Task: inverse folding
């Protein structure tokens, strides 16, 4: 009955099944420089961007190698990764 599911665990008391789905996680972001600041956009399933935050991170203080990347935009997947990159730019 569950041919597309994986059996992860089986005991007398419990059965654990899992299934991988290809779907949009809802945690896609774009960091980019605009008007001298680092801007964060949320990216939806259709690829449309919505302004999430205009940070106080001044582009002029970002390391040169990161400036090149930020000019084109950095795509980030997951809030944890987003926070890590923000912290790198803020330090």
Result:
């Amino acid at each position: 009955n569950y041919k597309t599911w994986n059996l992860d665990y089986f005991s007398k008391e419990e059965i654990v099944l899992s299934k991988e789905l290809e779907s949009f996680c809802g945690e896609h972001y774009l960091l980019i420089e605009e008007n001298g600041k680092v801007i964060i956009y949320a990216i939806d399933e259709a690829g449309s961007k919505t302004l999430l935050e205009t940070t106080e991170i001044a582009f002029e203080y970002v390391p040169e190698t990161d400036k090149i990347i930020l000019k084109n935009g950095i795509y980030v997947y997951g809030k944890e990764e987003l926070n890590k990159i923000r912290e790198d730019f803020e330090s």
In short: The beta strands are 6-10, 15-18, 28-34, 37-43, 49-58, 74-77. Helices lie at 64-72, 79-90.
